[in-house]
Amino acid sequence: MEITEEQYARIKDSLPVQRGNVSLSNLQVLNAILYVAEQGCKWRGLPKRFGPWHTIYMRMNRWSKNGVLDRVFEQLQAEQLVRIRIEAFSLDSTSVKVHPDGTGALKKTAPKPSADPAEAGTPRFIWLPRMLGRP
């Protein structure tokens, strides 16, 4: 699922312009992102031909925060360069946190002391000191 130079020329307007001393082109980064999306591998598992994984991850992270990735994938699908169909997905309980009120757990409440001691009733037990033996 890599795109060629000709295909990249059709969508390059949706990517930011590169400035300064950049080691990886937008095409290389985009192909690396598509590789991770297709293979489902970790960033550290990227083949060396794509370049340093950390550089690719940082640029992808910036693009996703700025909305660039949304524009790129919309453009890729509009040009019919990449077709993506989500068939199934799963959510892991370690990544989806639920508030304790939503789990149906009992509330932890402290016993409320009554204003009238007689209302509380008689004590159920009394501690009495006992001597076990005579000295």
Bin the helical content: 25-40%
How far apart lie the N and C ends? Answer: 91 Å
Q: Encode the helix/strand succession as letters.
A: HHHH
- Beta-strand content bin: under 5%
Q: Shape from CA axes?
A: elongated
Number of beta-strand segments: 0
The multimeric state of the shown protein is single chain
Rg from alpha-carbon coordinates = 32 Å
Please summarize the sheet with the most strands. none
Given as residue ranges, the uncertain stretches (5+ residues, pLDDT < 50) are none
| Tally of individual helices | 4
SS-based class: mainly alpha
Overall pLDDT score? 78
Describe the structure.
The structure is a single chain. The chain is mainly α and 135 residues long. The protein has a domain of 64 residues. The chain is 34% helix and 0% strand. The chain has 4 helices and no strands. The N and C termini lie far apart (91 Å).
Topology of helices and strands:
Blueprint: H1 5-11, H2 26-39, H3 53-66, H4 68-78
Name the features.
4 helices, mainly alpha, 135 residues
Task: Give a brief description.
With 135 residues, the chain is mostly helical. The protein contains four helices and no strands.
